[in-house]
Amino acid sequence: MNAITINLRFFASLRERFGASETLSLAAGTTVGELRDLLLARSDAHAEQLARSRAVRCALNQQLCAEDAVIQDGAEVAFFPPVTGG
């Protein structure tokens, strides 16, 4: 298995719950959706906060992306709730 190393970041309420960032090793070819699935399996808190039924956005290298985006070595992947403003 070829492994890649990424920087995982959380923002807003997710950051309050899980911390700002961490470094992870993943299998090469992992998608953002597969990463989310791995995180869902981590703990009850992750399963609740990152549930598919919740509106959670993802970004790959600071660009909004779909969950089928493939993560490359050295990438930054971020998860955050939708932004509201006014």
From TrEMBL:
Keywords: Nucleotide-binding
Nucleotide-binding listed as a keyword: yes
Record field: transmembrane: none
Keyword Nucleotide-binding in annotation: yes
InterPro entries according to UniProt: Beta-grasp_dom_sf, MOCS2A, Mopterin_synth/thiamin_S_b, ThiS/MoaD-like
Similarity-based family: Belongs to the MoaD family.
Protein name: Molybdopterin synthase sulfur carrier subunit
Organism: Roseateles albus
Gene assigned in the entry: moaD
